[in-house]
What does this fold into?
Amino acid sequence: MCYKGVGVSGLTAEINESKTLIVAPGFLLEIEPFSFQATCRWLKISESGEIDSGFEITFVSSSDRAKLQKMIQLTSVFL
It folds into this structure.
């Protein structure tokens, strides 16, 4: 499976802005924090001011890719 993007809530960004995103899954998932580079592709601000955005993953190291894949597998069980 190929994952190219991630949705984020509460992060201010501009369209096409690149950011390093850090994920800290917490003790329940037993995964160490990891990071990846991503570019904002869309942004939605609700009337109440809540921000949702979509980021395209542009780079992730092989060790962090393994953590990302593990988190996706573990969290997809709950969906």
User: Anything to note?
Assistant: The longest strand covers residues 34-45. The chain has one domain: 5-76. The chain is about 20% helix and 40% strand.
